[in-house]
Amino acid sequence: MIRELVSKVATVITERRASNRKTFNVPLKVWIKPDANGLFLSPYRDLYLSGETSDLSDTGIAFLVSSIRIREEYLVTQDDRILIVEMDLSGKKVRMEVIGRRYERIEEIHSSTERYSIGAEIVHMDVEDRRSYEYFMRHGSKLVKALAATAEIEA
Fold first, then answer.
1. What is the rounded distance in angstroms from the CA atom of residue 124 to the CA atom of residue 137?
2. What is the model's pLDDT at position 151?
3. pLDDT number for residue 12
């Protein structure tokens, strides 16, 4: 009986610690933030990867890209490299700073294409971007359906 009670309490604590994830496939761009020394500034300024999100939460995102690095620089490192992610959430551009925490190579049907899933922690967002992001997290399913319906009417 005590074990069951401890198990239930542990489950409740675990569920509350993790942010609620929502599955959305939203297009994004990701690039390396220039550091204070100007590293990555000139050769990497206009370089980015395009991809899409696989899930979103209040504290992090997971996204799919075709490469784990931009030129020779890895997106996920031990030194907490800051990445800039820009997403188009229902017609609004939302920009955030994230740190890649994990990555995994995704097996594709065709061996000629590689994709990587990157899990990243959100470390900074402007107030307006945070509002738009949180609004999308609450109402994203409805917004996506409305956009799809609009696209069908126009086609």
1. 17
2. 47
3. 56
